[in-house]
Amino acid sequence: MSGFRLGVARLLVSCSVPLFDAASAWAQQPVPESNARRTMTATRLPAVDMVTLDGRLDEAFWSSVTPATDFIQIDPANGRPATERTEVRIAYDNDALYMGVTAHDSEPDKLIRFQMRRDQGLGSDDRFMWIIDTFLDGRTGYFFEMNPSGLIADALIGVNGENRQWDGIWNGKAHRSEIGWTLEIEIPFRTLNFNPNSDTWGINFQRTVRRKNEETIWNGWARNQSLRRMNNAGMVTGISNVSQGRGLDIKPYGLLTAESSPGRGLNRTTTDTSAGIDLFYNPTPLLRANFTVNTDFAQTEVDQRQVNLTRYSLFFPERRDFFLDGATFFDFASADEQENNFQNDGADRILPFFSRRIGLSASSTPQKIDYGTKVTGQIAGQDIGLLHVRTGEEDAFEGEDFTVARFKSRLFQQSYIGGLYTRRDHRDGRDVSHTAGIDARFATSDFLGSENLQTNLWMLHATREGTTSGNSAFGGALIYPNDRWDGRLDVFEVQENFDPGIGFVTRRGYRRYTPRLEYSPRPANHRYIRQFQFGGGYDVRTDLHNDTLTRTVDLTLIQVSLHAGDFFNIEQSWNHERLDEPFELNDSITLPLGAEYDFARRKYVLQTANRRVLAVRLEHEGGDFYSGSRAKRVMNFTVRARPGLIASLNSEWNRIELPEGDFSTRLFRLNLETQFNPYIALVNLVQYDSQSAVVGWQSRFRWILTPGNDLYVVYTHNWLDDAVRDRLVTLDRRAASKVLYTYRF
Question: Which DSSP string do the residues of 443-490 spell out, in sequence order?
């Protein structure tokens, strides 16, 4: 231990030397900005003017529109003017909002624009982002972004976060020239919900110059805030007398499939054709209704494989469009889970509503969805979400009905108090489960002047046949999420019979207490280093008699983030664990009930910037593991050979050595993307993990014919790595072609 302490001391001293060579040890906070919000004016286009969407901004009217300019740096020089000029112009006609963006660049040949596929993350690229708060409520709105290749991405923003799976119908084009790059954007008013009696919206813009990792923003440059905080936005005025249409979208689809499962005894290939329809209707500007019939999710991406060396179920996120649309309206305060240590033996997820439970039987067999209906939005100042889905009979499994009701009553500027109810039942009336809950979120961005502070409180109760007590869960969190100091305290209890019928719970019958604090100073004017991070947490889980089950102390010994975008960190943890049930690590090793273990582990991470042609992430973690040891290595390589051509290889290797036996696990993931342009992409994903011994391949082609109209061709094939026959054996394969078209009224 003395050697460890000496090594850490040497490391901290060596990393600190360059900081204190500077005239000022740490960057001081900039002078607080004014509370006044910037305002710009949208210009109405004369009837004779038409926009040709090509990204060039060569229509005469653009020169008459007054731009928003004078962006301010968030990073690296917080509060100083942007080093590259950005101009944003807004115009509109009866049917659409138009934006013209000029992103001047002193070195246009160094623009970084790898991504083209819709909704891909732009952490590697130059980009322009903007948000629109159509109701000027400082809470909800729309997020959009583009890059110099013309990629478009969007999301819905709510109090509890954002939903990036939302695909709004809009379009944008990019053009590169000797002055930098320009964007020309068209957002139909039918895509946005807004109050037609108000001519003022919230709006804000942010630009990334990736080679400098410079982030600049139009309104509000405090690091504790962000573009996605609607209360931080400026305003655009002058939008009036426009058409929202009837608020009705009709989206039929046609589907052709062919599939077989020889590995499961179904050698014959079966083909099928089907059709369905989705309807979207806005009965008021604040309310949106969805209705789907004969729902199919053939175009959905497959889950990414995970290796599970914990005692608890893995969590896979929802990927189906119907459930993702408006998902933030159903969020509950308990879902804001805390992954408190790097070893993380399964983040404690307490979700009273988890939509992936819909369409799966108790044995995880897929079930057909006959129909679904959903209403989300605002009524009389209250946020509401209503959902009802019926699944069809599938072989021996009866159909089920799922119902969810959610409301949030707004308090102050960023807070709410709400309630949730869910019901799941078979159509014969047996095994009905109910879950009811209340929650509250109290948040401010004005604590101590300009700091963020948030408190979550929640309580849930679930009932189902055969249980009469121990059916509740409750807890709270105090969160201080800021740039220099970031801390939180979570306290909650999950009783032994708590089982939300349409929810997800990692474990039951325990209490958890998790304080954590991080300090992230920024050195002043350092040539290479942008930010440090030091931190630690204490995590205790007890049973309901307050006897300790697990105890973890974890430290971020150091994390260094460079201006170039690279970073490395070193973490250390000390763990104590008592098994409250036998733990089956694999088919031949089971650790006994009541056994207690103490183990220490250390983790090293090195990651290069995503803007590089070759981006690398390396992880090494080693130390004790229950009665023995575990070594873990993760290697991720991403090659961006040219814009639109991206290959990544991810691997994870674990070696476990115990007195009870030794074994290894392996996981490989190869992803090949060919993005022909922002509208056509082919993605191939190949995965293998040794726990299932299954090789999976999905090839997914998407052609956005026009915004809102799509063609998908998807092929999926799974093989078993048969050790007995020493070859790959086909388990199942499926091909699907799906066409979707949107009619707007």
Answer: EEEEETTTEEEEEEEEEEEEEETT--SS-EEEEEEEEEE-SSEEEEEE
pLDDT of residue 337: 57
Where is the domain boundary, 495, 519, 543?
A: 519
Specify whether the CB–CB gap between 514 and 350 falls below 8 A.
Answer: no
Please report the pLDDT score of residue 395 as a whole number. 66
- Pairing outcome for strands 86-92 and 43-44: parallel
Under DSSP, the state recorded for 302 is: P
> What Cα–Cα distance (Å) separates residue 417 from each residue in 379, 438, 456, 493?
15, 8, 10, 20
Range of the structural domain that residue 457 is part of: 306-519
Tell me whether residue 700 is in a domain.
no
Percent of the chain with pLDDT over 70: 92
- Residue 340's pLDDT is 45
CB 513 within 8 A of CB 506: no
pLDDT beneath 50, residues of the chain: 1-32, 34, 339-346
pLDDT for 450-473, tens place per residue?
Answer: 899 999 999 999 998 777 788 999
Q: What is the pLDDT of residue 10?
A: 40
CATH code of 187's domain: 2.60.40.1190
My answer on whether 167 and 69 are in the same domain is yes
Task: Kindly give, in sequence order, each residue whose CB lies less than 8 Å from that of residue 625, ignoring residues fewer than 6 positions away.
Answer: 599, 601, 656, 658
Strand 200-209 relative to strand 127-133, pairing: antiparallel
Same domain, 230 and 327: no
Amino acid at 225: Q
pLDDT in tens, 245-292: 888 999 999 999 999 998 877 888 999 999 999 999 999 888 899 999
The structure's pTM equals 0.87
- Omega within 30 of 0 (cis) for the link into 285: no
Number of domains in the chain: 2
Contact 290, 280 (CB under 8 A): yes
- The reported pLDDT for the residue numbered 34 is 47
Residue with tokens 């993931």: 669
Tell me which of 237, 259, 275 is where a domain ends.
Answer: 237
Is residue 82 located within the same domain as residue 199? yes
pLDDT at 393: 79
3-state SS string over 567-617? Answer: EEEEEEEEEEEECCCCEEEECCEEECCCCEEEEEEEEEEEECCCCCCEEEE
Predicted pLDDT at 160 = 66
Q: Would you list the DSSP string of 249-297?
A: EEEEEEEEEEEEEGGGTEEEEEEEEEEEEEEEEEEETTEEEEEEEEE--
Token pair 């804000």 is found at 204
